[in-house]
């Protein structure tokens, strides 16, 4: 069984490396994604990446990770294509962290374990950034480690899934 990890980045993360480098660093999202794919492969997992500035597109992609949604890969009978479902989701929801019940509901609805990642330490920033609609349901939350947080999340997801597979 191939472990599949979906890495989702929300609004404004396409500007990583350009936007407020004193907070988010100078590494571009494309570089994060390239390194993440390589790391996942070395851990025996496949990694797919997705970024959108639109809440609805992120909700659709979460549903597709479970084989649902308007663009999910399907068999001829319309059911989810076997082997195409994500085993885990790593999500940096950006500002949607603090506002999106829709993303929360999508993650809960698909019942795929997820890791919440933030490049900055959201707890050391403006008060509104301290609340997350996702953290209480995440398997793990990583923040304040810069883009290394993605590395830690992939390592955790790949190793955690490996343990689960061995128990089955």
UniProtKB/TrEMBL annotation:
Family: Belongs to the type-II 3-dehydroquinase family.
Keyword Kinase: no
Enzyme class name: lyase
Role according to the record: Is involved in the catabolism of quinate. Allows the utilization of quinate as carbon source via the beta-ketoadipate pathway.
Name of the coding gene: qutE
PROSITE patterns to which the protein is assigned, alphabetical: DEHYDROQUINASE_II
Catalytic reactions of this protein: 3-dehydroquinate = 3-dehydroshikimate + H2O
EC numbers, comma separated: 4.2.1.10
Active site: 24 (proton acceptor), 118 (proton donor)
A single GO BP: 3,4-dihydroxybenzoate biosynthetic process
Any GO molecular function: 3-dehydroquinate dehydratase activity
Source organism (scientific name): Parachaetomium inaequale
Keywords: Lyase, Quinate metabolism
Protein name: Catabolic 3-dehydroquinase
């Amino acid at each position: 069984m191939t472990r599949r990890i979906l890495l989702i980045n929300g609004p404004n993360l396409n500007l990583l490396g350009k936007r407020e480098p004193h907070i988010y660093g100078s590494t571009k999202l494309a570089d994060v994604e390239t390194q993440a794919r390589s790391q996942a492969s070395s851990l025996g997992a496949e990694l797919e990446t997705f970024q959108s500035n639109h809440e609805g597109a992120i909700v659709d992609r979460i549903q597709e990770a479970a084989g649902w949604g308007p663009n999910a890969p399907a068999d001829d009978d319309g059911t989810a294509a076997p082997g195409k479902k994500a085993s885990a989701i790593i999500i940096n929801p950006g500002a949607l962290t603090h506002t999106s019940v829709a993303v929360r509901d999508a993650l809960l609805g698909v019942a795929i374990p997820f890791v919440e990642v933030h490049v900055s330490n959201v707890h050391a920033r403006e008060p509104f950034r301290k609340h997350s609609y996702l953290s209480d349901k995440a398997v793990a939350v990583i923040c304040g480690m810069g883009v290394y947080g993605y590395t830690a999340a992939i390592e955790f997801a790949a190793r955690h899934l490996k343990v689960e597979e061995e128990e089955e």
